Amino acid sequence: MSRILVVDDEPYLADLVSTALRYEGFETRIAGSGASAVALAQSFDPDLIVLDVLLPDILGTEVCHRIRTAGSQVPVVFLTARDATEDKITGLTVGGDDYVTKPFSLEELILRIHAVLRRTSGAAQIPARVGFADLVVDDDTYEVWRAGQRIDLTPTEFKLLRFLVANAGKVMSKRQILDHVWDYDFGGNDGVVQTYISYLRRKVDAFEPPLIHTMPRIGYVLRLPREDR
């Protein structure tokens, strides 16, 4: 189990990211300041750090610099609202491995984390392709196949399907799907989930057997059909 340190002074966002990563099978810790992040980088010994740039005590870039100066080469994914090119260059110059700007989708962040871990830890440890039954999803190329045939999906459809595949067999509520697939501050209603589930069904479940199932008043689950009892 890979360990990820989430550093952000916004408790709601930190908890949201941490929960999403635990769904993916990661062990997580949260730090709300730069000083606590530097300390946890030593005691927790994470495999990757998700690091906000604008922290209340010191900048995330300085946190990264201190961690690197201490001899750690742990991968760092910067998370920030500052999207100017010079800010990105600064983050990467001090030793960051990727840079994700707010607002963001949790699924995109998770895909970026997987990609960074593959680059830094070896592709064999974290596969680029995940799947269920005859369905295959490739995180690197954003391609999807079912029964050996490629399926063209929009970016949002891909994120939704990737989330369902990552949680195959688990019932995901509409609220969970909204939080993980759409922007964390998305203000719309959960009707958008039903709409995109219908889009996915037309493409993914054009094959037999159907894999996307509705759990009335609860949500959706990716699984094989159950045999009639």
TrEMBL record:
Cellular compartments per GO CC? cytosol; protein-DNA complex
Provide the GO MF annotations for this entry. phosphorelay response regulator activity; transcription cis-regulatory region binding
- Domain of life where this protein originates: Bacteria
Q: Which residues form the OmpR/PhoB-type domain?
A: 127-224
Q: Name one GO biological process term.
A: regulation of DNA-templated transcription
Which residues are recorded as modified (4-aspartylphosphate)?
Answer: 52
Q: What is this protein called?
A: Two-component system OmpR family response regulator
Please name the source species. Nonomuraea endophytica
